Amino acid sequence: MNQNNNEKVIYLLWTGGWDSTFRLIHLVLVEKVKVQPYYIIEIERKSFLYELAAILKIREKILEKDPISATLLLPTRIYLKSEIAECSPITKKFQSLSSRFRLGSQFEWLPRFAEQNQMKDIELAIEKNQMRPRDPVFEYLGRFLIEDNGILKLATTLSDNDMQIFKYFHFPIYSKTKLQMLEISLKEGFDDIMFNSWFCHRPKRGQPCGQCHPCMDAMEEGFAFRLTVLAKCRYYFCKFLQNLKARIRAVKLSIGDSISK
User: Fold this and answer.
1) In terms of CB atoms within 10 Å, which of 5, 71, 97, 249 comes out highest?
2) Residues 6+ away with beta carbon under 8 Å from 136
3) What Å distances lie between residue 225 and 48, 160, 195, 214, CA to CA?
4) Mean pLDDT for all residues in the chain
5) Which residues are registered as beta bridge partners of 10?
6) Largest CA distance in the chain
7) Average pLDDT, integer, range 83-98
8) H/E element holding 136?
């Protein structure tokens, strides 16, 4: 592409969370690139109002910090998940892939959203883990990614047809950890805006719960400081229960093996 930064538009799925917010702010304030954000409302998820509030607050903070660059941030296009058209081929690929890997349900309807809107280059903020192994499905995804003009995207020829559900997306922060994003935001001077992002899926009285997947990610990826003491207690209790259940299962299997012998 021969577009300069003033003509270029990056299409980004923006949740108001840390990863997509980092990408958005870096594009607007550092790279000076126009961004078209998309947000999809999941009515059944308690956090969507908090996410929308975070999006509004982040916009305000960008405007305060750099009014000129803020004009590069286009109005957020908001959709309802319930209005996304069905697409049987995508759903079948998702079901096949999720039978082999743990995979969030959003990876079924996000490709359907992209297919419905004829998108082939929308950015999806999947980051790298720093303090624990990457989720197996995203480690596997890395085998099929190629670099094109500095952006990672799915290769055109795939040995696993189920991975086609990722063909609509670019993965600009696939190799960055949350702590690396924090370091960059500190260096570039927009860390204050980053802390207006939201991450909890099941907030309790306006605070992170400590038990949902994003809260556990925060605890395990060096961001425990973003959770309250009560949320941290819930996290440790939840981990204790998980470990206890795993031990009970292991004992039952051991007893079963002994009986069968």
Assistant:
1) 97
2) 101, 102
3) 22, 40, 11, 14
4) 93
5) 35
6) 74
7) 98
8) helix 136-141
Residue in 214, 101, 253, 241 with CA at minimum distance from that of residue 166: 101
DSSP string, 108-133: HHHHHHHHHTT-S-EE------SSSP
Q: For the segment 6-25, what is each residue's pLDDT rounded down to a tens digit?
A: 689 999 999 999 999 999 99
Question: Closest Cα to residue 57, out of 14, 9, 12, 8?
Answer: 14
Q: Which pair of structure tokens corresponds to residue 41?
A: 């409302």
Residues 6+ apart with CB under 8 A from 107: 94, 97, 98, 165, 166
CATH of 9-196, one of 1.10.10, 1.10.220, 3.40.50, 1.10.3470: 3.40.50
CB–CB of 22/181 below 8 Å?
A: yes
The residues spanned by each domain of the chain are: 9-196, 199-261
Q: Provide CB contacts within 8 A for 5, sequence distance 6+.
A: 31, 32, 33, 34
